[in-house]
User: Fold this.
Amino acid sequence: MASSVAVATAQVATLGFARQASRRCQPAKHMCVRHQLHNAQHFNRSLASTARGHGVASSRRNALKVVAKNPKHKFALLFDCDGVIVDSEELHRLAYNGAFNSFELSIEGKAVVWSAEYYEVLANTVGGGKPKMKYHFNTNMNPTGIIGGVWPEYVEKGIKMPAPTDDKAKAALVDALQDQKTELYKKIVEDLAVARPGVLALMDEAIAREDIAVGICSAATLAGFEKVVNSVVGKERLAKLDIILAGDQVERKKPDPQIYNMAREKLGIPANKCVVIEDSIVGLNAAKGAGMICIITPTTSTANGDFVSRGATAVLDTLQQGGRQVIIDDIFGEDGLLEGQCNVDRNLPLCN
Assistant:
């Protein structure tokens, strides 16, 4: 494992991912190339205890924060996590490759490595880590020269193992890879995760409004969720959110709309009064499937998605660009996103 961490960390260093560089990156017409990351093993005690003090409903699968329905809430603003709060996809890719390396995965004698180009395809096709791996090993999607549709051979405790053939063995391999990826991810992300421009300012403004419910709905597992929400969003801000859902709380991950439907039902707010902020086609499809308006803030790995034709109401490089912060009135105001005629050409303000 140590060698895998070293490999992944070295790759991060060569890409120049540094906190100061991220802060120097200014919003522009094209996406700033910034890559951060999140992850962890359990919803940590500080978050869990804070949530318990603010109306948490528990589920069999772990902490699920939902406050009581508030009759003052007329609208909901729901944030995805990976790619929206933090631009994390590149470091996720490096952590996956580190896990593949630690198990010495190979297909037809070639090491399994996900290139940046190929990962962009995955990010716009499948939500969640385990589903990505299963999709890759089950599906021959080969637009970039990466071998797919074949399960790999691997090394376990120094012994070369054949490719799994039954569902139980395949699931066990994916579980082991995901666990290893999580550990690598935690080590890589520790000093790199920073919020994308404008996201926390918009979240804070929404929290301050009595008529808006605010939440996070992430496809990531709770294990992959903790680092971002604790390190970047912060305990004090988290305590003020109305709902926090992760991939563990739903049976069907994005692009299925289940997570957004669950949020709407628990908050008691109609779908046409909910606005989702996402970064990918996968997330957009989930939001639109739930009947919600969706703002897209693409990352470098999802920037080529055809968001407008798929139903995005607005597409912005970030929530803060050209010196202009997206504000709540842009979305929920009298002439805002819900009611006005809105631009989708990455310009602010959102509506004419």
In short: The longest helix spans residues 167-189. The radius of gyration is 20 Å. Residues 12-63 have pLDDT under 50 and may be disordered.
